[in-house]
Prior knowledge:
By secondary structure, the chain is of the alpha+beta class. The protein has helices at 10-34, 40-69, 80-109, 135-166, 185-206, 308-314, and strands at 117-119, 123-125, 251-254, 259-266, 269-275, 278-283, 293-299, 303-304, 327-333, 336-339, 342-351, 354-367, 370-380, 400-411. Helix 1 packs antiparallel against helix 2 (40-69), helix 1 (10-34) runs parallel beside helix 5 and helix 3 packs antiparallel against helix 4.
Amino acid sequence: MSNTPLRYRPMAIILHWAIAALLLFQLGLGWHMADMPRSAVMFAAFQFHKSIGMAILLLSLLRVAVRVAWPRPAPVEGPRWQTRLASGVHGLLYLFMIGGPLTGWALVSTASVAVPTLLFHTVPLPHLPINHGWHDGIEAGHSLLAWLGAGLIVLHIGGALKHQLAARREEWVVPRMMPAHVRSVWGAVVLALGVLGIAFALPWVLYRAPSAAAAPFAPAAPAPAASEAPPVEETPVATASAEPDKPLTHDWAIEPGGRLGFSATVNGGPVEGRFGKWTGKVTYDPDHPQAAKLTVTVQLASASSGDQTRDSMLQGPEFFGSSPMGRAVFTASGFKPLGSGKFSADGALAINGVKVPVTLNFDLKIAEDKATVKGSARLDRIALHVGTGQWSATDQIGAEVGLSFSLKAHRL
Length: 412
């Protein structure tokens, strides 16, 4: 008696259908991304594409191990050319399942712009030590594998259905790759094809227009309009009831809970974030606003935009990591009253060894010894050397960056 089983083992069946669904989703996502405009949604889709690719690679390697470790059903009988074709399609499918993710990994590793990868926003994926000169060839190979894989999947499904239609009931082919309790073979076939079709179409549902997309694993807050100041936490300001001839001694302490935020345009879409660590010193007398002094120190490594991959890039050497002291310092002398509790302050921001002029516009409200401040400013990141190398261009990340702040302070 032969030890050849009549159907595949449960582990092989689970891996087969899981990989099949992921492959169809991955192909759909890849082709959908090719038509997507540069936006935060496209960035999210690209990151998710890498995560799914690595999942397919691991599951495929496990599938190979299962295939080698345990016997599988005998090949379907038929003409030699059909047997060889089926064997060739299976072999090329494994090449596609393993080679696709590997070439994708190599493609990311050789890109001129090194974007860090966190698989499913959790596991860091190191770049492969491959020369950047191989990038174009790897890109062509990755694209070729995608088209080859699509054709192989069609051939594989067509061959399985052909054998299913030609076989007698006791020799049916498709049930070998289905759980033993399946009763309606053709019902299961229709269900499987429907699920695979949904997997292929799902990327167009998940990653729609930038304004409405709800992309998984990539939250992005809407950016404020240029005329608005996004809610940013507070920074101290001053109040005082000093006599005209009394020296300025009205120092203010910024209270915990203030917010310092930033906004930028990335791949055509808005991205918002904040700095978690910053301190400020304020001297202000309402009777002498022109003598006010303000110093704010920001710890650049505390930048957060709600996306771990993007944040690790922000803290890299092309962005905030290039600052020798790891901080930015803003100083201003004198507040200019604009009426109705509105002020402006001309100062300078020092970062990356350069200093540029910056004007803060803010609303100041003082009640007794309490002050509330909300305001905004606009910066040119290129002038501040934030984003060097490939990031010095503005096609992916805009040059203008918005700052917003809100804080409360009390007089000392």
